[in-house]
User: Fold this.
Amino acid sequence: MFGKGNTVGKAWRFGQFWQGKRCGAKTRAGHPCKKAAMKGRDRCRNHGGASTGPRTSKGRARIAAAQTTHGRLTKEKRAAAKRNAAVGRQIRAELLEIEAWALDRGHLDKDWRDKLNKALVLED
Ligand SMILES: [Zn+2]
Assistant:
């Protein structure tokens, strides 16, 4: 009638050797919850296992704000970093084109970088 090791309570109660997943919540008394977790979840019905989470956009935003630590990796920030990187690549490509044009027309010597670096060092 009773499960293994369970000599008190009702016959359907889960015994100490029950193989299933237990609820992972800590009770207010301080010990772990003994109920079975809901199918596919880590909590029993009493501890939020039946919760579907935030559904409204307002609720989802509130949870996202509570979970955000510093916001450096938000979708918007990552998209902005991608845009900035693309602008940087375009600028560097245009500078290379301009350098090639100036070298081609003789406005710059081939060693213009070395000369510029030496001039900048002498100024200091
Ligand atoms: Zn529980």
User: Anything to note?
Assistant: Residues 23, 25, 33, 35, 43-44, 46-47 surround zinc ion (CB under 6 Å). The radius of gyration is 33 Å. The longest helix spans residues 75-105.
